[in-house]
From TrEMBL:
Its main location: membrane. The chain crosses the membrane at residues 323-348, 368-389, 409-430, 437-460, 472-489, 521-538, 550-578. It is found in: Membrane. GO terms for biological process: vacuolar acidification. Belongs to the V-ATPase 116 kDa subunit family. Keywords: Coiled coil, Ion transport, Membrane, Transmembrane, Transmembrane helix, Transport. It comes from Tangfeifania diversioriginum. One of its GO terms (cellular component) is vacuolar proton-transporting V-type ATPase complex. This is V/A-type H+-transporting ATPase subunit I. It is a multi-pass membrane protein. GO terms for molecular function: ATPase binding; proton-transporting ATPase activity, rotational mechanism.
């Protein structure tokens, strides 16, 4: 359900306004009404910084923590963040340096590990050494006769050689002559051993940075989270000041906000005790900025995370979460439909609940979905891809009569679809009555009368309860009543002719969309059958591919079964999660008249209060 909201307007003398903000932040129930949407430049900078800190936390959470007694000397979240930026900068610089050195080392590999001091010494004595290369096939043997050449190495299709030339004037005519077809190379002024030492040093520095990062991930995430909350707090305070308007020449400050009905008592007591002038009114019909706070029972609350994947309802309509929750649970079980897979999901969720307490509610939801899978697996007689209905298991013979085959499974999917669509239309009647008034829901009521009435007449006629003549009269009565509601009374503010025209268009749309909506539920049948078939295929594969060996045979079979059923659980589980969401958000929400557009309730509160929310 949606908790009713009250719109508060506070009038506070300017000298006590800062204290007032501190007090209501401490109480933590006021959702400040954002009248000014454009944040100040200072707030924009804080938003950007908040995003950077959030990304830093996410990166740290992805790093495997390194437990050690050497705790980083970082006392605040800001210091942690700044050190992370430095580590990132140093790491990038280290990486670029290493790339450059590796590139230079590769250039020197064909020449070996020589000492550049010897080259410099020869140059001082008038001997110029030029490093050259050419493709091996283009090397001319007569070059060695015409020039002072020494071949060093053939490598990767090239011949590397040095050309010695004298720089004195007496031999100037023989010096610095070019060799057609060969290229002169400019080599790095380092030896391979020097480069290896530099690379080793850089790798050591990179390892130190990596270890420091892992230690920060172990010790400092709480500090960084506190820093994130502090920035959020600054933003909320600046937003409160931004949304404050000045009255009576700036002597009175006015602030507007929303407070849930369930949380207003403490605030009212504070306002009365401090004699602060305020008004508290329920939202008007044309109010569009009412925040949404959901309050559901323990079962439905687990499914709020699914509802929020789409949109929150607006404050005028129903919260559909408690109404789609049982259907979603059934549809997931229907789509996966294997009792063995359901048990695996329940077991994994229980393990994850203990390992990751912050995901406890999500794991509880997974366990409920796993339970639904077990129930439908028993109903369809499927256990890890084994078809129990056609298996010769003596103790199952008495239970098999309660299991359903594929034909009955197909019909069950259609029946569940019809039930959910009709239930959605009932909720649409309630929604329209709440938002516009009961008279505007008569058209939907007409469709309910038409579908349920005709279905009941046909059913009673089929089983022989109604004879042909009585059934015919009943059909005309249903058509007549439904026709009046759909064609004549669909909008109380329009004239009859306009209503008839709009009603005919509505008939066309409903006739085409309802059939498509109902057929969409066949996907439940298809997913359930495909999951069973995949499991059966891997079972057959394991049996046929196992070696005829006492030891390796069972081992190979188990490996194939574990991998195969793991793939099936992942693929079929993903389909079982996604497709019921589609049926919920498209077929059910549409037929329930869901409008949406609600914004979440976010109170102006201390960080601890925010976490508790």
């Amino acid at each position: 359900m949606i908790v009713p909201m009250y719109k508060y307007s506070f009038l506070v003398f300017h000298s006590g306004y800062q204290d007032f903000l501190k007090d209501i932040r401490k109480i933590g129930v006021v959702h400040i009404n954002d009248k000014i949407k454009e944040p100040t430049p200072e707030m924009q900078d804080l938003f950007r910084h908040l995003t950077e800190v959030s990304k830093a936390i996410q990166k740290l959470e992805m790093i495997e923590p390194e437990a050690t007694e050497k705790k980083p000397e970082l006392k605040t979240g800001e210091a942690v963040f700044n050190r992370l930026k430095e580590i990132e900068k140093e790491g990038e610089h280290n990486h670029h340096q290493m790339q450059q050195l590796e590139k230079e080392r590769k250039q020197l590999v064909p020449w070996g590990d020589f000492d550049w001091k010897m080259i410099e010494k020869l140059q001082k004595q008038g001997v110029e050494i030029r490093f050259m290369s050419c493709p091996i096939r283009k090397f001319e043997p007569e070059w060695e006769e015409d020039f002072y050449i020494k071949v060093i190495k053939d490598w990767e299709g090239y011949r590397y050689f040095v050309k010695l030339e004298k720089t004195d004037k007496e031999n100037e005519e023989n010096g610095f002559e070019e060799i057609s077809g060969a290229d002169e190379l400019i080599l790095p002024n380092h030896s391979i051993s020097q480069l290896d030492a530099e690379i080793k040093k850089l790798k050591t520095e990179a390892d130190e940075l990596r270890h420091e990062l892992h230690r920060i991930a172990y010790f400092c995430i709480p500090l960084l989270e506190e820093y994130y909350q502090a920035i959020e707090q600054q933003l909320s305070e600046k937003n409160a000041l931004l949304q404050t308007s000045e009255e009576v020449e700036g002597k009175v400050k006015m602030l507007e906000g929303w407070v849930p009905e369930t949380k207003k008592e403490e605030l009212d007591n504070y306002l009365e005790e401090n004699k602060i002038l305020y008004t508290a009114d329920q939202p008007s019909d044309d109010e569009e900025k009412v925040p949404i706070l959901l309050k559901n029972n323990r079962f439905a609350k687990l499914y709020e995370i699914i509802g929020k994947l789409y949109e929150l309802p607006n404050h005028k309509e129903l919260d559909l979460v408690p109404f789609f929750a049982p259907f979603y649970m059934m549809f997931f079980g229907f789509s996966l439909g294997d009792a063995g897979y359901g048990l695996v999901i329940i077991g994994l969720a229980e393990y994850m609940k203990r390992k990751m307490p912050n995901l406890r509610s999500v794991m509880k939801l997974a366990q409920l979905l796993g339970l639904a899978t077990v129930i439908f697996g028993i109903l369809t007689g499927t256990f890890f891809g084994i078809d129990l209905i056609n298996s010769q298991i003596p103790w199952l013979e008495n239970i098999k009569e309660y299991m359903v085959d594929t034909d009955e499974l197909f019909n069950l999917a259609i029946i569940l679809g019809v039930i959910q669509i009709l239930f959605g239309m009932v909720l649409k009647v309630i929604n329209i009555s709440r938002v516009k008034g009961f008279m505007y829901s008569l058209s939907t009521i007409g469709w309910l009368i038409l579908i349920i009435g005709l279905g009941a007449v046909i059913g009673l006629k089929t089983v022989g309860t109604l004879d042909e003549q009585t059934a015919s009269v009943a059909q005309y009565v249903v058509l007549g009543v439904a026709g009046v509601f759909i064609l004549v009374l669909n909008n109380p503010k329009r004239n009859i002719l306009m209503n008839i025209g709009a009603g005919l268009w509505d008939v066309y749309n409903m006739a085409t969309s309802l059939l498509g909506d109902i057929l969409s539920y066949i996907r439940l049948f298809a997913l359930g059958v495909s999951s069973a078939i995949l499991g059966m295929v891997f079972n057959n594969m394991a049996m046929s591919m196992k070696p005829d060996n006492v030891i390796f045979g069972p081992l190979v079979m188990i490996i194939i079964l574990v991998i195969g059923h793991g793939i099936t659980i992942f693929m079929s589980g993903l389909g079982a999660f996604v497709h019921p969401i589609r049926l919920t958000f498209v077929e059910f929400y549409k037929n329930a008249g869901f409008t949406g557009g609600g914004k979440p309730y976010k109170p102006f509160a201390e960080p601890a209060s925010k976490i508790s929310e």
